[in-house]
């Protein structure tokens, strides 16, 4: 009996499960080198393609376990982060995976400010053909040395598709105007016109006046989600969160303010006056500052935020916070891999149905304006179960 140094043969039959595991790991690492989609997504795709049985699944590393080693492989081929907004973009990052142009504009503006725009020809065609355009930016997800990522979306077969990706050094009106002028000229060069029937954006102060001046024939509507968000942020700013959580009467009136965006345009002012009258009955008038804020900041431009009877009320489905923004200064394969937003979910459809029922009852004189406002207040700012 030999415990070591044995010359006897010691063979095992190939373990098919381990072979599958090694192949899956190899495929994930190979794709991580060539593609820029998130590693967990690659993991799920390779797992679904592999012929796995319960034994293989039991010994296969989880996505979290394999992530560090795959990330280490990927980082070997990723350029170091630049030290300023001025850097040379490698040629392979200016094109899509199939070699088509992706870098649309690279311009130096005043005071050493840089503007980068990315879009493929297919995405531009979708954008210029779309009657509805969504615009949204994120500051939290922007890369170092840039202020925000701004994305312009088109609608194609009821699906939102991100079409133009901009890296911005600021949020100034002059920068937004430069983007729109650039897109208009590109449209002309392609024999098209960039003049959507409807544009939906957030309430960023720099974008609103520019959209109105650059697209005078387009209907500009601000996002209902961002409208409600702005109201709630003011509630927080005024230190009303505790009362909002514990005082049912105050919370109902706050939600009625948010619901004004869903009311018929001609009834908004009267409904606001009704809210004011009810708020004045609360002890110590805790809503006085909130009502003053709303009157000064919102009642002078009702058309911007009122979305009564509109099929499109929010761009929250495409807000860049929720998109896997792996397209920035990286190669993608075109519109099919740009994080297309899925159609409305069941909860959204159910909310829409309740709103439609209220509108129908109001139109048929089954409920009055006050009843409509009350009903709509119950479909805004709902807590998740």
Q: What is the rounded distance between the termini? A: 67 Å
Order of helices and strands: HHHHEEHEEEHEHEHHHHHHHH
Count of β-strands: 7
- Return residue spans where pLDDT drops below 50 for at least 5 consecutive residues: 317-342
Residues in helix, %: 40-55%
How many structural domains? 3
Please state roughly what percent of the residues sit in beta strands, choosing from under 5%, 5-15%, 15-25%, 25-35%, 35-45% or over 45%.
5-15%
CATH topology of the largest domain: Nucleotidyltransferase, domain 5
Instruction: Supply the CATH architecture of the largest domain.
Output: 2-Layer Sandwich
| Largest sheet entry | 7 strands, mixed
- Spatial ordering of strands, largest sheet: 1-2-5-4-3-6-7
Gyration radius, in Å: 27 Å
Mind sketching the topology for me?
Blueprint: H1 16-34, H2 39-49, H3 54-59, H4 63-75, E1 103-109, E2 113-118, H5 121-129, E3 132-138, E4 148-156, E5 159-168, H6 173-189, E6 198-201, H7 207-214, E7 219-222, H8 224-237, H9 241-246, H10 248-259, H11 268-279, H12 288-297, H13 302-305, H14 346-363, H15 369-377
Parallel strand pairs: 3-6, 6-7
Antiparallel strand pairs: 1-2, 2-5, 3-4, 4-5
Helix pairs in contact: 1-2, 1-4, 2-4, 6-7, 8-10, 10-11, 10-15, 14-15
Keywords: Membrane, Transmembrane, Transmembrane helix
Transmembrane segments: 149-169, 362-381
Protein name: MULE transposase domain-containing protein
